[in-house]
């Protein structure tokens, strides 16, 4: 739905704008979605409109980013913090000789308890490899059944191989289908991952033993000034710092990806750190790619009630006043511009509002156009398994809330287009 069409409907049916919908209740009936008006991502604080890429980069982008810091995710710390890395082990013939496996620990501020445990699988190639970087939900051991990968002792959300919020040996390889390491390696890509609970355990009090507390002095940022998503996103940037020092990695070709709450995190990290060459959101839903003002699936008050630690305190104030929020999620996606962006949904995951994710990606296209790049050409929702778009790309697949081989096939093809191999024909964004 376009901004113009939405505003016209509001003039005809003003009662719909008065909050006839109850955002404390979930809705999955498209016919009941009322009109809404989105903030104009190109309107500057003085009321003038952005017309050039330079205006966006130097004036509007910093303004929009600050709005998200103030109103959604909290402060993104920029204070330099001391880091050191230690390679714990390297296997040059991992996965039956197809990969190099590295286990790397990253320590912060001389605090050995503030540590990220990286798992890296890299192709055995002479050149630095492009990589996909993303956090995992259950510890590195869930990515592969390799017995050399340590099992996390941190609190985890419940799932396969998890008993009372702690993983067991049965969790080894439990998420292998979501990561498709063999497929990535076959296409010349590496995988870099770590457990998001290394940074902050995922429950309302998790901040007390996490980085927001341990590094508050070093970062000059109080725990309440940011959020769990903010801390996870900040950690992704610090992993990027490390990747720039690893000679086996092409740090200019890092695809940042995330699923669900970690998709929200990937978008925020991608907005905050332009070093991520490509950003991918897999079913990130409310607080991620989906439009907050669309009454469909999970809503702002619902997510704030169930996961109060994910966002900052100001975000919770909008639960009953959503239209007062100065941003919506298309503006977050626009912060990725002009870098390639992929947004993906699943037909069976109505909770994440697939159409709201699509429309958000479509609305973000106005900023990509400032840079002369094509985004998504039409606001017509695409059919299942029919990806659309160019520098901004979208698909909805069959199935549930998950990451599947189909998703990975699209992401790999997307990355291959922007990361051509030596000797390959470079593909234009206009192709």
From TrEMBL:
Q: Source species, please?
A: Chitinophaga eiseniae
Q: Where is the 4-O-methyl-glucuronoyl methylesterase-like domain?
A: 224-372
Residue intervals passing through the bilayer: none
Q: Mind telling me what this protein is named? A: Acetylxylan esterase
One of the entry's Gene Ontology molecular-function terms is: carboxylic ester hydrolase activity
Q: Hey, what's the signal peptide range on this chain?
A: 1-20
- Asked whether the UniProt record includes Hydrolase among its keywords, one would answer yes
Q: Which InterPro entries match?
A: AB_hydrolase_fold (IPR029058), GCE-like_dom (IPR054579)
Q: Which domain of life is it from?
A: Bacteria
The UniProt keywords, alphabetically, are:
Hydrolase, Serine esterase, Signal
Which Pfam family, giving just one, matches this sequence? GCE_fung
């Amino acid at each position: 739905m376009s901004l113009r069409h939405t505003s016209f409907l509001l003039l005809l049916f003003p009662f719909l704008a008065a909050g006839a919908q109850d955002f404390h209740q979930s809705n999955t009936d498209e016919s009941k979605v009322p009109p809404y008006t989105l903030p104009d991502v190109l309107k500057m604080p003085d009321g003038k409109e952005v017309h050039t890429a330079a205006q966006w980069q130097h004036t509007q982008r910093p303004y929009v980013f600050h709005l998200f810091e103030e109103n959604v995710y909290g402060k993104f710390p920029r204070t330099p913090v001391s880091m050191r890395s230690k390679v714990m082990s390297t296997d040059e013939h991992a996965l039956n000789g197809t990969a190099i496996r590295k286990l790397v620990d990253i320590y912060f501020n001389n605090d050995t308890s503030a540590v990220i445990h990286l798992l890296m699988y890299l192709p055995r190639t002479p050149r630095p490899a492009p990589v996909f970087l993303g956090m995992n939900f259950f510890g590195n051991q869930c990515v592969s059944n390799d017995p050399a990968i340590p099992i996390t002792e941190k609190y985890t959300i419940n799932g396969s191989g998890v008993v009372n919020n702690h993983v067991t040996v049965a969790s080894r390889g439990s998420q292998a289908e979501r990561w498709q390491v063999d497929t990535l390696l076959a296409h010349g890509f590496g995988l870099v991952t770590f457990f998001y609970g290394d940074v902050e355990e995922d429950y309302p009090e998790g901040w007390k033993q996490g980085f927001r507390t341990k590094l508050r002095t070093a970062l000059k940022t109080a725990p309440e000034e940011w959020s769990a998503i903010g801390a996870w996103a900040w950690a992704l940037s610090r992993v990027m710092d490390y990747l720039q020092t690893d000679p086996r990695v092409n740090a200019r070709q890092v695809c940042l990806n995330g699923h669900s709450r970690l998709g929200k995190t990937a978008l925020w990290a991608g907005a905050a750190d332009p070093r991520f060459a490509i950003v991918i959101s897999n079913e990130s839903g409310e607080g991620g790619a989906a439009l907050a003002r669309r009454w469909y699936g999970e809503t702002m008050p619902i997510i704030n009630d169930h996961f109060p630690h994910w966002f900052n305190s100001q975000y919770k104030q909008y639960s009953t006043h959503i239209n007062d929020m100065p941003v919506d999620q298309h503006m977050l996606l626009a912060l990725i511009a002009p870098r390639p962006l992929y947004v993906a949904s699943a037909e069976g995951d109505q909770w994440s509002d697939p159409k709201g994710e699509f429309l958000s990606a479509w609305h973000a296209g106005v900023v990509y156009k400032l840079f002369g790049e094509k985004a998504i050409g039409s606001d017509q929702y695409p059919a299942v398994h029919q990806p659309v778009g160019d520098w901004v790309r979208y698909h909805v697949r069959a199935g549930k809330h998950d990451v599947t081989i189909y998703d990975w096939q699209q992401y790999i093809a997307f990355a291959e287009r922007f990361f051509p191999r030596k000797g390959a024909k470079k593909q234009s964004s206009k192709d």
